Amino acid sequence: MIFDIIGAAAGLVLLALAADHLVLGASRLTRRLRVTPVVVGVVVIGIGTSAPEFLVSGLAAARGDTGLAVGNIVGSNILNLTLLLGVAAIIAPIPVAARVIRREVPLAFAGVGFFGLVAVVAGLGPITAAILAVAGVATLWLLVRWARDGEAEAGEPTAEPTAEAGRTWIEAVRVTLGLLGVLAGAQLLVDGASAVAANLGVSQLVIGFTLVALGTSLPELVTSIQAQRRGESDLVVGNLFGSSLFNSLVGGAVIGFADDKTAYAGGVLVLTMVLSTGLAWILLRRGLRLTRLDGALLTVAYALVAPLLLSA
């Protein structure tokens, strides 16, 4: 079993490093190619940091480990909006624009709630996967439209290439290697976590919620900390709520398409996920900022919830 643990740990490390370079390279490449900043923010950061969740859950579902697949998505969403958002707020208070509270955050809450309802009531199969996929595409279109409207109102010019973007071919290689690294890390993580769960007799849903969810959430953690250090508070909120939104809609669709059986989620896990999202929304809405005290509250909330979910 020691080799399985080493393999899972190596997968976690490779996944985090590769995903970081994937997002960094894609961001620089889009600037080099004169793609608008909204595309970078929504597509690269939002979906890019969620790529590990998609890949890990898809691979797990294809292997028949549906508990691991669903637990990873639900656990990552809870982690994003409790522990990770809390840590970011403890580093520095997070002010947020009223527009984000009125539009993007409620949309994320609705997406997480819709995924939870589908996973508990109907299950994740081909039909519900198609519905979630359509919802994901519609949501992406809506977010891009909102962001472009905001740029037009602010009169922001299209991003120009900078020296930081580097040479195009270098960033293209970075993106390619980052994607390959994410794929390899995801495979190592799924293989190791599944073997450890089988050897210890632990539910794969529990392993998915803890080890796998934490590992696949590392890119969001790294991105959020870097954004806080640079004073990009809206990016922190958009990254974590956006990642949870795409995890739910796209990740749920991936699970439904990857497995030939219908996967269901536990009611306790889903209820905790929805309540965690609602708590983060309420704290942000109150005063349009997340204080260090709020961050500590979210961190404690995760610590209190984790033991309960381990017995789910």
Would you give an account of this structure?
With 312 residues, this protein is mostly helical. It has a domain at 48-156 and 203-310: NCX, central ion-binding region (A middle domain of Talin 1, Up-down Bundle). Helices cover 82% and strands 1% of the residues. It contains 13 helices and two strands. Strands 1-2 form a two-stranded antiparallel ribbon. It is globular and about 50 Å long. 51% of the residues are buried. The model has no long low-confidence stretch (mean pLDDT 81).
Query: What is the second-level CATH architecture of the domain at 48-156 and 203-310?
Result: Up-down Bundle
Strand content: under 5%
Helix content: over 70%
Helical segment count:
13
Radius of gyration: 18 Å
From the spread of the alpha carbons, the general shape counts as: globular
DSSP summary, beta strand count: 2
Attribute tags:
312 residues; mainly alpha; A middle domain of Talin 1; 2 strands
What's the topology here?
Blueprint: H1 2-32, H2 37-48, H3 51-62, H4 66-91, E1 94-95, H5 98-102, H6 104-122, H7 126-154, H8 168-200, H9 204-216, H10 218-229, H11 233-258, H12 267-285, E2 289-290, H13 292-310
Antiparallel strand pairs: 1-2
Helix pairs in contact: 1-2, 1-8, 1-10, 2-7, 2-11, 3-4, 3-8, 3-11, 4-9, 4-10, 4-11, 4-12, 4-13, 6-7, 6-11, 6-12, 7-11, 8-9, 10-11, 12-13
